[in-house]
Amino acid sequence: MNKPHLSFTQIVNMNVGFLGIQFSFGLQQANMSPIYQMLGADGKDLPYLWLAGPITGLVVQPIIGALSDRTTHRWGRRTPYFLIGALICSLGLLAMPFSPALWFAAGLLWILDAANNVTMEPYRAYVSDRLREEQHASGFLTQASFTGLAQTLAYLTPSLLVAVGMNKDALGANGIPLVTTLAFGVGALLSFATVWWSVRRVPELPLPAQELARLRALPKGLGPALAEIWGAVREMPPTMRRLWWMALCQWYAMMCYWIYIVPMLAASVFGTDDPHSAGFRDAALLNGQVGGFYNAVAFIAAFAMVPFTRRLGAKWVHAFALSCAAVGMWLLPGIHDKAWLFLPMVGIGLAWGSIMGNPYVLLAGSIPPERAGVYMGIFNMFIVIPMLIQAVTLPLLYDSLLGGRPENVIRLAGVLLALAAACVLRVRPESSS
Q1: By C-alpha distance, which of 367, 382, 374 is closest to 67?
Q2: pTM of the full structure
Q3: Which one has a higher pLDDT value, 147 or 416?
Q4: 77, 89, 317, 324 - which has most CB atoms within 10 Å?
Q5: Helix (H) or strand (E) holding 3
Q6: How many whole angstroms separate alpha carbon 50 and alpha carbon 260?
Q7: Is 127 exposed, middle or buried (0-12, 13-18, 19+ CB in 10 A)?
Q8: Strand partners, 171
Q9: How far apart are the first and last CA of the chain?
Q10: Where is this chain's protein located in or outside the cell (predicted)?
């Protein structure tokens, strides 16, 4: 297919939908551990309660990718999945802060994450579909920048609501702060509205008649989709295989950070382990501020990385960013002054901007275009399998190896990010053409 060269404005518009998707993920990262603990969860059980994301991603994204590769709907191959997933996600966000019990919040997270995954996987393939190979770096790093912007807003929204007059200690009937409830309402609005914007502004390209005929001749349904996934796994390009070890280390590390950053801040800055204390609520707000800062760094860094990625290559830029985050993670637990917390967040922000862009630059150039959806879905398995491994193994290590302390979990994340930086340097990029 002869793809038109897109302007910078068009590339931005096509990625606006990622703002809503990632605002939802940002709300989860910043608030699910506090919500779970406010509803009665123990610290060592938090990884189990976060299983929804990895498991739904493992199941949903490859299947949706394979199905979208074969879809011939009049709206396009990817668009129907964008819109359905975004609508369900909006409803899940509205309901989450009203959860009456721990089991309800955990179950609702499964629905919410499944919907997010239905939307996100075709979105990755949509960027690969729509852009020429020489524009992949701009497309995926713009997508990464929207991740940073969305999660900046998601992390900061509760603090901004407090700044304009809301009472940070005002609680709903279930003990969840009202600022959290309103923040999830904002996320529900953005989830659908931003995806609709992108679909309207930069619609999918119509498929050539020959390609459309080929797709319509393919068998439909779940069975052929599963067979396509298995065939794609067996024929996986070498570059993609080499990205596994990097993905294992970096995503295990990021899950450690997201789950335990609020308990760590509560202990290291506010001197409390009690999830019902004012200090713990202050730690949740502080996490919103430092998390918003590192995502703002990611937003700026993702754009700034484009010329470096084009000139030096994605793997060198990614290795540098991961190394900066490794240092930052290791330093975090030893900081007791709130002001100094923002320094290591620069390194974490650099890595987050790179994580959401540069691995996809490496991947997109190595996969066949007609299988973009299924390979983007399979690549998501490189994200969720490490998350599953973390959820199963971290509780076994939490007391015995890590002393039952969230500070040590964050230090472990630093070590793993350093290993991820070493692993990415072993990747040899290749072209699918």
Answers
A1: 374
A2: 0.70
A3: 416
A4: 89
A5: none
A6: 12
A7: buried
A8: 177
A9: 13
A10: Membrane
| For the chain, percent of residues with pLDDT exceeding 90 | 23
Amino acid sitting at position 265: L
Looking from the CA of 10 toward its CB, the CA atoms found within 13 Å total: 11
Those residues whose C-beta lies under 8 Å from the C-beta of residue 369, and which sit 6 or more positions away, are: 1, 128, 129, 432
DSSP 135: G
The answer, yes or no, to whether residue 317 has pLDDT greater than 60, is yes
Which of 109, 105, 284, 253 lies closest to 179 in space, CA to CA? 284
pLDDT band at residue 433 under the 50/70/90 scheme = very low
- Write the burial class of residue 64 (CB in 10 Å: 0-12 exposed, 13-18 middle, 19+ buried): buried
**Token couple for 290:** 């430092």
- Give the pLDDT confidence of 225-240 residue by residue, as tens digits: 778 778 878 888 888 8
Rg (C-alpha) for the chain, rounded Å, is 21
Lookup: tokens for 168: 């940070």
* Residue 386 half-sphere exposure toward CB, CA atoms < 13 A: 22
Three-class DSSP category at 177: strand
3-state helix, strand, coil in the chain (%, to 5): 80, 0, 20
Q: Which amino acid is at 163?
A: A
User: How many residues comprise the chain?
Assistant: 433
Question: String of b and e for 141-159 (b: at least 16 CB within 10 Å)?
Answer: bbbbbbbbbbbbbbbbbbb
Residue 197's pLDDT band (cuts 50, 70, 90): very high
